[in-house]
């Protein structure tokens, strides 16, 4: 946790409603530091449906491997998350640690080990002493409470400067269902599947297959459209749990992925995922500004997204934003290096509503003062039109500041 | 030009021999600043063979377009290089500026306009006032001298903290030939074709086709294996000129690309290109350390290079190097995100001679002190073995420091 809170932090937190069927508890297990909350446990007293998306890293953490292997079973009873150690690149010891943690959790909750989900965040390559969980999970499972979302979000923070929570509601069969989510960043954030750790719970009754379809569809324009530093974590995990408690209030379970009754739920879920994803960007390590990059007129949507990410990941673009410098030439550079089709002489670029370039050259009416005024905002919209087709994408990033370098030049020690 | 010289600067400059057939002059044309040397002119009194490699950017600068269109002619009489303005993304005005500059140079030297080569470096998107060249090129063409390499290198600097020169010699037909080169960086440096600006001249007699083959082959493991910030410039230009003056000393012209007599020349050229490329990295914006990343045991050489670049471009790896932090977990992360085949459980990692990870976990004999000692060096060798095949590549980069952010947050103003 950094000493100063990001200037882009939310001005207030939403009041997080209780979601029937999930209880949470946190503890200080001494994973890395003494007397610091570093474990979160979620307990589903009745089996919950589960869906998940994970890092595309070829070197995933042991917990990611563990979750992936449990997912086909489709049922969750417990989630154990720790900060301070990622249990990644820990070899046989890492696998043993996940097994021991799952065993401890299954005994604490009274469930099968393949109904346990695990996530770890922190340093890569340090063996994780899973015996530290054994002493705390029993008590946590017993004492967990439903009104604990903000504390849960705090427990999983690493270099985050504020906890990330969001809540939405939707109707299925005329029954109001709630979706709550928490997330943590704040570096090693790049879209290549779900980014960082995030856990979302709903009381809706939705079968695993339908839940997975909703999550997989929702992640593209949200968590997979944000980047802090282009570095994809070994541990990225986004999970969605459905307790089914709404069934008692009359919601008939949704079984099929294409069930039209899910439309409202999907929209609310996507909105919540975007909320959480943007909170992650706004708390990017050292971030002082958020940049929304929209690319239009590309050959297709995939090309638009690659160009948008080329801009959003460019150190030169991000340092210019940090310096409030309307250096649109670096946007041209980033478009050019993306490898995607671009016609220099059709390119147009806007900062906010200020068009700075058109037809492959500086806008004839270019005003440095107007462009600079946009750069001085906290939120900076950048738009690039390629004039080639209908492809379109929006991604979000933050600026690259000296604080990012300071945070990451001395993180492990 | 930054106030402080990079700590990685060469301790001394080589004495640069004169190369018969080329003369150089510099001038202060007031492109961006007053009273600052900002133009370099090279003159070949007899037609020289020419070869070139350029940026792969889809938004190349006007001078890059201009050089590319002249290259098939194969003959050079003049080169005009300016700093302070890249003449990139300048539309029709940019093309007009290259044409006017070529016309001024052709009149000054007495050659055709397609025997003129141009390069510009500096801000993107600002119209370049080419009339400023008209007044100086005539005098430069007249007063140019052969003993002027260091001054030439100084004239093309932008954020460079030291001039970059190198010289080598080789034998063709038992005749000693010389190769001299200059280069400039120091940001927006990433390998995707020749990087930044570099001009190399030899007195050997080599036809354009053979010269181009030698240059294209040499650029892969040298200029295309260095990265400062993953940002590919719109203006990257590397040109090689052969004056043919050695013919008077008995060297028979080399016509074919596969002529075995070129072996020694190619080796000397590659060595010189590597020397210049490493000088560019060692002067990367804000650089305090150089990192040599070697990947072995990859599926093939191309995969090895992509993994090596994924490591070398990772902001988290580069900030860890800046902080002298032996954070090898970030190497694992960068291998994992590269998209290339990797088997976590076969991975081994070295910092210098210190093996820090093996078989997918921390080395049993890991010594933090030994690893940290390597990180405290100026030059840090990192090796990753994937244990999959024979693929191998080496790339070079520098650390990412607060100074990089400072330089680039406020470059344009």
UniProtKB/TrEMBL annotation, chains A, B:
Site (Cleavage): 194-195
This protein's record includes keyword Acyltransferase: yes
Reaction catalyzed: L-glutamate + acetyl-CoA = N-acetyl-L-glutamate + CoA + H(+); N(2)-acetyl-L-ornithine + L-glutamate = N-acetyl-L-glutamate + L-ornithine
Keywords, alphabetical: Acyltransferase, Amino-acid biosynthesis, Arginine biosynthesis, Autocatalytic cleavage, Cytoplasm, Multifunctional enzyme, Transferase
Positions of the record's site feature: Involved in the stabilization of negative charge on the oxyanion by the formation of the oxyanion hole: 121-122
GO biological process: L-arginine biosynthetic process; ornithine biosynthetic process
Residues at the active site: 195
Binding, substrate: 158, 184, 195, 285, 408, 413
Class in the EC hierarchy, top level: transferase
A single GO cellular-component term on record: cytoplasm
HAMAP family: ArgJ (MF_01106)
NCBIfam families noted in UniProt: ArgJ, PRK05388.1
The family this protein is said to belong to: Belongs to the ArgJ family.
The name this protein goes by in its record: Arginine biosynthesis bifunctional protein ArgJ
Organism field: Gellertiella hungarica
Lineage: Bacteria, Pseudomonadati, Pseudomonadota, Alphaproteobacteria, Hyphomicrobiales
């Amino acid at each position: 946790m950094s000493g100063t809170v990001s200037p882009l932090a939310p001005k207030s937190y939403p009041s997080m409603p209780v979601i029937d069927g999930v209880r949470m508890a946190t503890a200080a297990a001494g994973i890395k530091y003494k007397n610091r909350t570093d474990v979160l446990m979620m307990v589903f007293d009745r089996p919950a449906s589960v869906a998940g998306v994970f890092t595309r890293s070829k070197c995933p953490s042991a917990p990611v491997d563990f979750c992936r292997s449990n997912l086909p079973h489709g049922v969750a009873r417990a989630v154990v998350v720790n900060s301070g150690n990622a249990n990644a690149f820990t070899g046989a010891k890492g696998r043993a640690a996940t097994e021991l943690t799952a065993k401890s959790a299954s005994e604490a909750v009274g469930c099968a080990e393949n109904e346990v989900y695990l996530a770890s965040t922190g340093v890569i390559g340090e063996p994780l002493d899973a015996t530290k969980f054994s002493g705390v999970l029993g008590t946590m499972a017993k004492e967990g409470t439903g009104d604990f979302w903000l504390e849960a979000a705090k427990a999983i923070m690493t270099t985050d400067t504020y906890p990330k929570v969001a809540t939405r509601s939707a109707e299925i069969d005329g029954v109001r269902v709630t979706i709550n989510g928490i997330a943590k960043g704040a570096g090693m954030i790049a879209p290549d599947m779900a980014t960082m750790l995030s856990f979302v719970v709903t009381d809706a009754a939705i079968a695993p297959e339908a839940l997975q379809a909703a999550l997989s569809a929702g992640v593209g324009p949200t968590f997979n459209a944000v980047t802090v530093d282009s570095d994809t974590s070994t541990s990225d995990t986004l999970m969605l749990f459905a307790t089914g408690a709404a069934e008692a209030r009359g919601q008939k379970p949704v079984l099929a992925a294409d069930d039209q009754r899910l439309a409202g739920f999907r929209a609310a879920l996507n909105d919540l995922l975007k909320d959480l994803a943007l909170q992650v960007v706004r708390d990017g390590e050292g971030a002082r500004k958020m940049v929304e990059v929209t690319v239009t007129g590309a050959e297709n949507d995939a090309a638009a997204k690659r160009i948008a990410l080329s801009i959003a990941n460019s150190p030169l673009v991000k340092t210019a934003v940090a310096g409030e410098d309307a250096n649109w030439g670096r946007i041209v550079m980033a478009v050019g290096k993306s490898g995607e089709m671009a016609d220099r002489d059709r390119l147009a670029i806007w900062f906010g509503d200020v068009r700075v370039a058109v037809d492959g050259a500086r806008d004839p009416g270019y005003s440095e003062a107007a462009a600079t005024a946009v750069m001085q905002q906290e939120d900076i919209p950048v738009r690039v039109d390629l004039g080639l087709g209908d492809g379109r994408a929006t991604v979000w990033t933050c600026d690259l500041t000296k604080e990012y370098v300071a945070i990451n030049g001395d993180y492990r020690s």
